[in-house]
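Checked the freezer inventory, then went back to the computational side. Two predictions to log before the end of the day. The first one is the construct we discussed on Monday; recording sequence and tokens without edits.
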Amino acid sequence: MRRSEPRDADDRIASPCVRECSLDGRDIFRGCGRLREEIRQWRGADDALRLRIRARAGARQAAV
């Protein structure tokens, strides 16, 4: 596991949320790049899934 990833108070991979919760034309949240389903999954996700979600979200934002 990459320890360089941001961590929350519980030492889990931190959410990419930046409190900009509006959707773009592709139904992707503008602030974090996540899909609704990824946001729903976040709370129960282990670190491996959180890393995959962050990677997909980052790729979506880079593609804009």
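The second is the one RB wanted added to the comparison set:
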Amino acid sequence: MRWALVKVCVAVTTMVVVAFAVPLGLVIKEMARDRAFSNAERQAAAIAPALSITTDRDQLERVVASAGSDDGMAVHIPASDGAKAVDIGRQRAAAKDIATTRNIGRASTTEVPGGSILLQPTALSSGEIAVVEVYVPESEVSNGVGTAWAVLAAVGVALIIGSVAVADRLGVRMVQPAQRLVEGAHELGEGKLGARVPEEGPNELRLAAVAFNSMADQVVQLLANERELAADLSHRLRTPLTVLRLNTASLGDGPAAEQTRAAVAQLEREVDTIIRTAREAKPQTAATVIGAGCDASEVVRERMDFWSALAEDEGRKVRVAGVDRPVRIPVARADLVAALDALLGNVFRHTPEGTAFAVDVHNSEDAVIVLVSDAGPGIVDPEAAMARGKGSGSDGSTGLGLDIVRRLAESTGGDVRIGSSVLGGTEVRIWIQLDGRAPVRRGHRGSVRRRRRGVGASRV
């Protein structure tokens, strides 16, 4: 917008300067010509009194010398009463032009090499017509014209430069508020909820700034309300969790009792984490730092130890692979635990007892793939299951399980895919990028497996 305004002002100012400077330059040139010929007429008029008194050559030469340069003035007296014609000075005009001027009885001009000639008729005492010739060189005709045109050009350039400066200032006054509005929108989109823009500039941009600030205030208020609602809802879970923790104390000793108490303690920690996060004044917008995370192999081993007891009770075969060596990923431990628990919980919730399942960890130079597969009936509509925040609405589904897994993968630049597993059921692939780049669209063992069509509930 700024440069467009400058270009428009340059074009308009240039047209105005040309429209006025060209005619004015022509007028100046004509005025210089008129001035030169007026001087020539004055010189010719200075000879007229002497010609009306005498035609003596010597006297006329003295008069011509006193009136002007001998080289620039000439007098042509015709022959009369037996007297010869007298020509004083250098003749530049053609004889026919002199005769024509004498016949018509009025002044005339004619062009000659290097300038122009003024032919002025003057009556003699004898009644004959003498012609006074005055040479006007071209330099005298154009005297001062070049300087005047240079001044006009300088004034025109100054006007154009001035218009550019004014247009640029006006453009800055219009563009800066728009740029600040764009920067504020980017900051707000990045999660900087304190971003505001000055309410200044042209009226339209000022109104846009007012609307933006009002929108930002409403966004902050809405997020604050949502945080308070999440904190309140999470806080309501503390009472039943307390009762559940007290009840676990009466379970006695044994692996099942210990696992139950550990699960309740972990649930309490998760609820506390949700409450603290919801109460924070600022959203978590910092990018994941590569190198800070957890050991995926350790987390998988721990969670499989937890779920293996339930799997043993239900007669499920369990296989774990790829966890024999450390695998660092840029994901918080709690996030990976939540994602694995969501997927393994789906296996137990949506497959019959006795259904086998497996967890595999594949490590490469730029990514880590975690595969959770089972031998169940599969998923009827994987696309619906992967839709954000969508669930089947049955069997206690909230539609948040796969959202948790997706957020974990996408926080690293990875993704989540659902396909058919080698066990005959569903395979959920979590692609975790190690360098933050966009994920390569490929699946386990070289390609994305086509999902197996079967009957089963949507897993969330």
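For RB: Residues 2-53 form the longest helix (52 residues). Residues 283-291, 391-398, 438-460 have pLDDT under 50 and may be disordered. Let me know if you want it refolded.
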